[in-house]
Amino acid sequence: MPTLRSLVPVLVAAALYAGLAAIVTNSYYQLTLTLVLVWAIFGLSWNLLSGYTGLVSFGHAAFFGLGAYTTALGQIYLDLSPWLLIPAGAVIGCLAGLVVGIPTFRLRGHYFALAMLAYPLAMLYVFEWLGFQEVTLPIKRESPFAYMQFSDPRLYTLVALAMLVAVVVITRAIEGTRFGMALLAIKQNEAAAEAAGIDTLSWKLRAIALSGAIAGAVGAFYAVVLLVVTPPSVFGMLVSAQALTVSMFGGVGTVWGPLIGAAVLIPVSEILHAELGARIPGIQGVIFGLAIMAVILLAPEGVYWRVRDRLRQRRAGSPVTDNRPAAVEASVVSFAAPPLPARERRRTGAVLLSVRGLSKSFGGLKAVQNVSFDVHEGMILGIIGPNGAGKTTLFNLLNGFLRPDAGQVIVDGRDRVGERPHQLARAGIGRTFQVMRPFLRMSVRDNVRVGAYLRAASEEEARRLADEAVDRVGLRGAADRIAGQLTTKELRLMELARALAGQPRLLLLDETLAGLGHGEADEVVAVIRRLAETGITIVIIEHTMQAMVRLVDHFLVLDHGAVLMDGEPERVTRDPQVIEAYLGKKWVAHAHA
Amino acid sequence: MTETTRHAPTRRTLLAAGAAALAAPRAFAQSPAEVKVGLLVPLSGLYARPGSVMRMGAEMAVDHVNKAGGIKALGGAKLRLVVLDCGDTTEKAKNAAQRMVAQEPDLVAASGAYLSSFTLAVTEVTERARLPVLTLSYSDLITERGFHYVFQTSATAASQARQALPLIMRLAETAAGKRPKTVAIITDNTGASVASAKPMREGLLKEVGLDLVMDETFTPPLSDATPLVQKVRSTRPDLLFFLPTVISDAKLVLEKMNEFGLSQGRIPTISFGIAIAEPDILQTISPSLLQGVLTCVGSWATKGHEELVKELKARFNEPWMTQNAISTYGDVWVIRDALEKAGKADKDAVAEALRTMDGGPSKYFPGGLIKFDQKGRRVDAEMTVVQWQNGIPVTVFPRQLAVAEPFWPKR
């Protein structure tokens, strides 16, 4: 739950807003005050799904419209009060979220966005076909309050404000916990999130259900304010766009974004409409459009982030760059000394991972062919091979991203083929990626915490596990820095820490040394060795051999998807077949000479 | 909102009150120099064009009322039109209405808001603010909510559906000398067209003794009208109901009819609503193709409006006077009559005057009286049949309002 302190700015803003609403007696200005809140809540609902997971929804009007029709039809046919129908709208929105989410989350990126677009458009026609082109909420002259038909428009603003504060508290509560972390992880890299043990589908479904519920509730309230519900006014393209506009203007992925967006855009558009609409009809749309374009150009991620980055820069000033490497190097430097001490080779422990006859083809390309090997507890296995040898495909088969055509992946004596990545992560297989996907705006500590939720039962424990992992890779001094300020080496270490925070027994490292300078690679190698000392089994992919020779206990050489050789580092580096695969035939003779 | 008991005044008390008001010395009448009348219509977005035509009608009427001496009961006070843009969405219309009642508290009445859904939203606001609103919108729902401050000058949609077919039958009989027997329907599947075609299929045609020989529904946009028109040619109906929404579809079908020798009224083609008779349509379809096409609309410039049409043309360069212009023109005159009757520039008094007035036969709306029933609907409101003749849609029916003879094939 968000602490009371973190809610202070929100509560202060709400109190000021309520104060403003109380002194506004003009019913038109009051209506604008109400609508600002309506669109802010709708923006927050959109933000909860799209802002945090990065899955852009062009169809939030579907939930909004269902909520609006819940109020309208519920009052007309069942004579229920909006006081009941608003919660009912939330329930319907929530269910609609699940119904929409289950099939649609199979899609990604643009395809998801476009599929979402279809739902409100389809519903628009369904409601027209059902004969609900124009539905008005019956006027209640006897008991207006019971039917939320206040004669004092200030009450609408207060109801909306209460809803907004509730939604902000919910959003805040999500932001700081594993729910929010899971969504952020999905946004950055869904594959990596799965690998870190996050059941992405279930979190996404929770997000869309909650988002749908909020949209449904605010849609239900909107019907009370508008009094007339037509399919275009609640399912229309402009409604979905409104959620995007306020969020993108204000800032995506933060609770403040939709609030800022709605507070600026709605009154501006109303003022333009009121002042210019009757004089130069149409000009209001042009000015509004240009203003949004200007802001998007100046602050592409939204006003909030722009202002925040500015303030941070000013507060931090220049010394940021100066103090950065010291802390990290202090803990790593001793290992960077040129010749690394020889490591006692281990390959005798119990077999942790056993791969048998693993094969995978993509069309005619045999990416992995009949690969078998064993990984003993505590050893470091290096998988090498030239580019395109099938190394990353092999990893993807091991941690469940791909399903093999044939073969077994036996972890602890159990065949795990067919399990999803987050399940394998739970079974103790951690992984890093060739292409780094840090959460750039989050601190190192928070980045690592995402991985810790795999094992942590509470926020407290997640924090502790994250801190431990940060210590183990030697990043303690940098723990509070923003990931966006780190060097490549530090980022690699941070990714390592994120995988470690999930307490894996087996760590799959995909080209962890890529892109590092000579000295830097040695530092990372030192960290990996230290991890191995503590009993973590490691499988590492590299296509360069130098750094690996001193690191690993055993090599597996792949070429064209098949095992070329399986042996000790000394043997492998002298093997003519390996040299040929890497350097071409003429170097074989050279090597023998 | 608490409603004070509404006592229906008898005619006698009203006459007495009216006489008293007239008899009162002018100096005692509260006589503001200006009386504000609202016009809330779409001036931006998709419906800006019809909205601006409504504004033309309103401006002309205000000038005419003022030139004729203003509101005599108020010492010759002049009308002033307050124009507000209701935009192109229900929400914008509702906001604009809220703005109207909040910023212009001294309005005595208003007219608006073109689309039924806009009028529905607008009147939710004006009802609560007790501001009387006159509207040309058709939807029955507008006057079915038990509201006391909304007045519908056109025949409602349901009433038009009942009136249109007998009207067409009478027109055919007068023009051709015999009753049509067979009918074809070509309609697109948009909401408004479906709403018009459905009751015809489900009994209205049978009631007037028409046999439906062809019934085709298409999804806009049409890519080729040949199969549709071929069917029309082979079934040779006495009447064709053609209900397009998209102008390009209308164009395709009319062009094909022309190609097949079915146009120029050889098969009387009848549409519903104002879309096919708006001046804009000439930008896309040549007037020769439209020759003879009929449409049933709630109101149009009719006999006796010749001067108005001329003025509209001279002042605003509008080629003819559609429902939007003439109805809004009429609204202002109704408001003026109500002000005369109320004797004070007060919205509640004007509303009461509208509820109780009996202005005799209507001058600017087809048929019926300047009198509103319990629901706020104009009593005995009729509709008009308009036909394209030589590049202009003119009223051809009912007889007493027609400005031209209907053009009908005599077979």
From TrEMBL, chain A:
<keyword id="KW-0547">Nucleotide-binding</keyword>
<dbReference type="InterPro" id="IPR032823">
    <property type="entry name" value="BCA_ABC_TP_C"/>
</dbReference>
<feature type="transmembrane region" description="Helical">
    <location>
        <begin position="61"/>
        <end position="78"/>
    </location>
</feature>
<keyword id="KW-0813">Transport</keyword>
<feature type="transmembrane region" description="Helical">
    <location>
        <begin position="241"/>
        <end position="266"/>
    </location>
</feature>
<dbReference type="InterPro" id="IPR043428">
    <property type="entry name" value="LivM-like"/>
</dbReference>
<dbReference type="Pfam" id="PF00005">
    <property type="entry name" value="ABC_tran"/>
</dbReference>
<dbReference type="GO" id="GO:0005886">
    <property type="term" value="C:plasma membrane"/>
</dbReference>
<feature type="transmembrane region" description="Helical">
    <location>
        <begin position="84"/>
        <end position="105"/>
    </location>
</feature>
<dbReference type="InterPro" id="IPR001851">
    <property type="entry name" value="ABC_transp_permease"/>
</dbReference>
<protein>
    <submittedName>
        <fullName>Branched-chain amino acid ABC transporter</fullName>
    </submittedName>
</protein>
<keyword id="KW-0812">Transmembrane</keyword>
<feature type="transmembrane region" description="Helical">
    <location>
        <begin position="207"/>
        <end position="229"/>
    </location>
</feature>
<keyword id="KW-0067">ATP-binding</keyword>
<feature type="transmembrane region" description="Helical">
    <location>
        <begin position="31"/>
        <end position="49"/>
    </location>
</feature>
<dbReference type="InterPro" id="IPR051120">
    <property type="entry name" value="ABC_AA/LPS_Transport"/>
</dbReference>
<keyword id="KW-1003">Cell membrane</keyword>
<dbReference type="InterPro" id="IPR027417">
    <property type="entry name" value="P-loop_NTPase"/>
</dbReference>
<dbReference type="Pfam" id="PF02653">
    <property type="entry name" value="BPD_transp_2"/>
</dbReference>
<keyword id="KW-0472">Membrane</keyword>
<dbReference type="GO" id="GO:0016887">
    <property type="term" value="F:ATP hydrolysis activity"/>
</dbReference>
<dbReference type="GO" id="GO:0015658">
    <property type="term" value="F:branched-chain amino acid transmembrane transporter activity"/>
</dbReference>
From TrEMBL, chain B:
<dbReference type="GO" id="GO:0006865">
    <property type="term" value="P:amino acid transport"/>
</dbReference>
<feature type="signal peptide">
    <location>
        <begin position="1"/>
        <end position="29"/>
    </location>
</feature>
<dbReference type="InterPro" id="IPR006311">
    <property type="entry name" value="TAT_signal"/>
</dbReference>
<comment type="similarity">
    <text>Belongs to the leucine-binding protein family.</text>
</comment>
<dbReference type="InterPro" id="IPR051010">
    <property type="entry name" value="BCAA_transport"/>
</dbReference>
<feature type="domain" description="Leucine-binding protein">
    <location>
        <begin position="34"/>
        <end position="390"/>
    </location>
</feature>
<keyword id="KW-0732">Signal</keyword>
<dbReference type="InterPro" id="IPR028081">
    <property type="entry name" value="Leu-bd"/>
</dbReference>
<dbReference type="Pfam" id="PF13458">
    <property type="entry name" value="Peripla_BP_6"/>
</dbReference>
<dbReference type="InterPro" id="IPR028082">
    <property type="entry name" value="Peripla_BP_I"/>
</dbReference>
<keyword id="KW-0029">Amino-acid transport</keyword>
<protein>
    <submittedName>
        <fullName>Branched-chain amino acid ABC transporter substrate-binding protein</fullName>
    </submittedName>
</protein>
<keyword id="KW-0813">Transport</keyword>
